Amino acid sequence: HLSSVSRLLYTGQSRKKRADAILVFCLVTGIIFTLGVIFAIIFVILHWAIVKAVLGSKNGQDDTFEKLTNKSSQSDM
Questions:
Q1: Could you tell me the residue range of the domain that residue 67 belongs to?
Q2: 56 and 62 in contact (C-beta within 8 Å)?
Protein backbone atom coordinates (compact mmCIF):
# COMPACT_ATOMS: atom_id res chain seq x y z
CA HIS A 1 0.00 0.00 0.00
CA LEU A 2 2.74 2.40 0.93
CA SER A 3 4.56 1.95 -2.37
CA SER A 4 1.41 2.59 -4.43
CA VAL A 5 0.65 5.76 -2.46
CA SER A 6 4.21 7.03 -2.86
CA ARG A 7 4.12 6.21 -6.59
CA LEU A 8 0.85 8.16 -6.98
CA LEU A 9 2.30 11.13 -5.17
CA TYR A 10 5.52 10.97 -7.19
CA THR A 11 3.93 10.68 -10.66
CA GLY A 12 0.97 12.97 -9.92
CA GLN A 13 -1.53 10.52 -11.35
CA SER A 14 -4.17 11.23 -8.71
CA ARG A 15 -4.03 14.97 -9.33
CA LYS A 16 -4.26 14.48 -13.08
CA LYS A 17 -7.28 12.21 -12.75
CA ARG A 18 -8.93 14.70 -10.44
CA ALA A 19 -8.25 17.55 -12.88
CA ASP A 20 -9.65 15.44 -15.72
CA ALA A 21 -12.77 14.73 -13.69
CA ILE A 22 -13.22 18.44 -12.98
CA LEU A 23 -12.75 19.30 -16.66
CA VAL A 24 -15.25 16.66 -17.76
CA PHE A 25 -17.73 17.92 -15.17
CA CYS A 26 -17.33 21.50 -16.39
CA LEU A 27 -17.65 20.42 -20.01
CA VAL A 28 -20.83 18.44 -19.38
CA THR A 29 -22.29 21.29 -17.31
CA GLY A 30 -21.49 23.78 -20.07
CA ILE A 31 -23.09 21.60 -22.73
CA ILE A 32 -26.25 21.16 -20.65
CA PHE A 33 -26.38 24.90 -19.95
CA THR A 34 -25.89 25.76 -23.63
CA LEU A 35 -28.62 23.36 -24.72
CA GLY A 36 -30.94 24.81 -22.09
CA VAL A 37 -30.32 28.35 -23.33
CA ILE A 38 -30.91 27.29 -26.94
CA PHE A 39 -34.19 25.58 -26.05
CA ALA A 40 -35.25 28.62 -24.01
CA ILE A 41 -34.55 30.94 -26.95
CA ILE A 42 -36.49 28.70 -29.32
CA PHE A 43 -39.41 28.56 -26.88
CA VAL A 44 -39.44 32.35 -26.48
CA ILE A 45 -39.37 32.84 -30.25
CA LEU A 46 -42.27 30.45 -30.79
CA HIS A 47 -44.18 31.90 -27.85
CA TRP A 48 -43.56 35.45 -29.08
CA ALA A 49 -44.97 34.56 -32.50
CA ILE A 50 -48.13 33.21 -30.86
CA VAL A 51 -48.46 36.27 -28.61
CA LYS A 52 -47.88 38.59 -31.57
CA ALA A 53 -50.58 36.81 -33.58
CA VAL A 54 -53.07 36.99 -30.71
CA LEU A 55 -52.37 40.67 -30.07
CA GLY A 56 -52.56 41.47 -33.77
CA SER A 57 -55.96 39.82 -34.18
CA LYS A 58 -57.32 41.53 -31.05
CA ASN A 59 -56.18 44.97 -32.23
CA GLY A 60 -57.58 44.47 -35.71
CA GLN A 61 -54.17 44.78 -37.33
CA ASP A 62 -54.32 41.27 -38.72
CA ASP A 63 -57.00 42.00 -41.32
CA THR A 64 -54.53 42.17 -44.21
CA PHE A 65 -54.92 38.41 -44.68
CA GLU A 66 -58.71 38.84 -44.85
CA LYS A 67 -58.32 41.63 -47.43
CA LEU A 68 -56.07 39.45 -49.56
CA THR A 69 -58.50 36.53 -49.43
CA ASN A 70 -61.42 38.81 -50.31
CA LYS A 71 -59.53 40.22 -53.31
CA SER A 72 -58.61 36.75 -54.55
CA SER A 73 -62.19 35.52 -54.20
CA GLN A 74 -63.50 38.57 -56.10
CA SER A 75 -61.02 38.10 -58.92
CA ASP A 76 -62.09 34.47 -59.30
CA MET A 77 -65.65 35.48 -60.12
A1: 2-76
A2: yes
